[in-house]
Write a structure and sequence with these properties.
With about 500 residues, this protein is an alpha/beta fold. Helix content is about 35%, strand content about 20%. It has 15 helices and 21 strands. The strands form five sheets. It has a five-stranded mixed β-sheet. It has a five-stranded mixed β-sheet with strand order 6-8-7-9-10, with helices on both faces. The protein has a five-stranded mixed β-sheet with strand order 15-17-16-18-19, with helices on one face. A hairpin with an 8-residue loop joins strand 18 and strand 19 (about 460). It is globular and about 85 Å long.
Length: about 500
């Protein structure tokens, strides 16, 4: 009997401990009632505003929880349920979920625009901890600060009352989420780098040091926040930066050539720079033509390379795979093997700048028969069908798995049947999951429908109306360049 009671008590105790462990969380739970006095207790605080029913919030939750545990003692993470705490969410302008914001000493600092994985959140928020700019007291402090995986911006000033220092700190406060800042009021710390007066130096990441460009870049001219921002923007990446998932959106604002290979700066920096130096050698010959060069880990972008360039994991072996993507969306790939002397890359670029390269376009095969009431368009026939200067074209961009697209299909087919005898208009559709969407067409969801009028192909008009057949007909009556012929009968103007 006593053994049975003991077992029962042990079970209750274990169940209680298990339940307690499940309920434990390193993410602070804030509400309308306590936000204003709990948030200021933390120098740096990342707050997730969410709704319990939100799918993206549920996906983020375990990553956010893991990041909170790993950042414990460095940066605090908190959450606010906006369905139960409408006042605080309204105050901070939350209108979508999840919304992440960074607070400093209780004051909103900025929106969080970093990665949503635990690793990404940890790495991003570690940069947010501490002061906007680190105060350096010695040469040892300086060398330790600049010997980092990322680039560093260091201000050297004559004293704490320097107006230049005040402006530098203002800039550091605004840009700390993107760059690393430090400063000193002892000019002698900069003697090694030729500093004789107040200066700002940009130290590129030591792992990217090469003979093809300077590792330390001095800021010239008067200092202002705008000037500092421009100086960093123009110099931070150098001739050939390391493209990552975190900086890809910034780098791809320019025309960008990327060499993808087995790059690993953590475990094999020397091997990683072997191919980068060959890219740099060629980059020095073309750097004045507005093209940015980069290197990247192939595995980090494998899914993208398969999706956008048709590259398989077995292609290229240890040799780099080279792509060129313009800021307008044109894509090119170097199909010739990357030679160790760089000649193949040089030849590829000469052809590109001479206009001899053919754009890479992801496209389904051209249909052998295409005489249905709704014309099937693939990327390789988009120019021929949609950009036919003599015809008006209504084109639907769809995804095979999209429920709204499936619901639209019979109505869209009925529209095609009504206009099939009209020689001046084409009703068309394109699977946007397996065909590249041309520039000028913004397709973020499905279905997306555009009207490309005859003679105005550079100005496609997005269809925003209801999706019944009569709504499409009314739209086309207004927009078509010629009177419609419905079911064989010409409409009067």
């Amino acid at each position: 009997m006593d053994k049975m009671i003991s077992r029962g008590l042990l079970c209750v105790l274990l169940c209680s401990l298990s339940s307690s462990a499940r309920e434990h969380s390193d993410v602070l739970k804030l509400t309308d009632a306590d936000f204003d006095y709990l948030a200021p207790e933390h120098e740096t605080l990342l707050v997730k505003f969410y709704a319990p029913w939100c799918g993206h919030c549920k996906k983020l939750a375990p990553e956010f929880e893991s990041a909170a545990s790993r950042l414990k003692g460095t940066v605090a993470l908190a959450k606010v349920d906006c369905t139960a705490n409408t006042e605080i969410c309204k105050h901070y302008g939350v209108n979508g979920y999840p919304t992440l914001k960074i607070f400093r000493n209780g004051q909103e600092s900025s929106s969080y625009d970093g990665p949503r994985s635990a690793d990404g959140i940890v790495e991003y928020m570690k940069k947010q901890a501490g002061p906007d700019s680190v105060l350096l007291h010695s040469e040892h402090d300086l060398e330790k600060f600049i010997n980092h995986f990322d680039a560093s911006v260091v201000g050297l000033f004559s004293g704490t009352d320097s107006s230049q220092l005040a402006e530098f700190l203002k800039g550091a406060s605004l840009m700390r989420e993107s760059f690393r800042f430090a400063h000193t009021t002892d000019l002698q710390l900069g003697q090694k780098y030729g500093v004789t007066h107040e200066s700002i130096l940009l130290f590129r990441a030591p792992r990217l040091s090469s003979k093809f460009e300077e590792s330390v870049v001095p800021h010239t001219g008067s200092l202002s926040v705008t000037g500092l921002r421009r100086f960093i923007r123009d110099n931070i990446f150098g001739l050939c930066p390391h493209l990552t998932k975190e900086n890809k959106d910034v780098l791809r604002k320019r025309d960008l050539l990327t060499a993808y290979y087995d790059l690993d700066y953590l475990h094999n920096p020397k091997g990683s720079n072997y191919w980068r130096n060959r890219v740099l050698k060629v980059a020095t010959k073309f750097s004045s033509q507005g093209l940015l060069f980069s290197v990247a880990n192939r595995n980090d972008f494998m899914e993208e390379l398969e999706e956008e360039f048709g590259l398989s994991a077995s292609d290229g072996n240890e040799l780099p795979f080279v792509t060129l993507r313009t800021r307008t969306g044109d894509k090119y790939s170097m199909r010739e093997e990357f030679t160790r002397d760089g000649k193949s890359l040089e030849s590829f670029l000469e052809d590109y700048f001479a206009g001899r390269l053919k754009r890479y376009v992801k496209s389904e095969p051209v249909p052998a028969i295409n005489n249905g009431v709704v014309k099937v368009v693939v990327a390789d026939t988009f120019e021929e069908i949609v950009n036919d200067p003599e015809k008006d074209v209504l084109i639907e961009f769809y995804a095979p798995w999209c429920g709204h697209c499936k619901k639209l299909e019979p109505k869209y087919t009925a529209l095609g049947e009504m206009l099939y005898s009209d020689p001046n208009i084409v009703i068309a559709k394109m699977d946007a999951t397996v065909n590249d969407v041309p520039a000028g067409y913004d397709v973020q969801g499905f279905p997306t429908i555009y009207f490309a009028a005859a003679g105005r192909k550079s100005e496609p008009k997005r269809y925003e109306g209801a999706r019944e057949v009569k709504d499409f007909i009314n739209f086309l009556k207004r927009e078509a360049t010629k009177p419609l012929i419905l079911n064989g009968v010409k409409e009067e103007l």
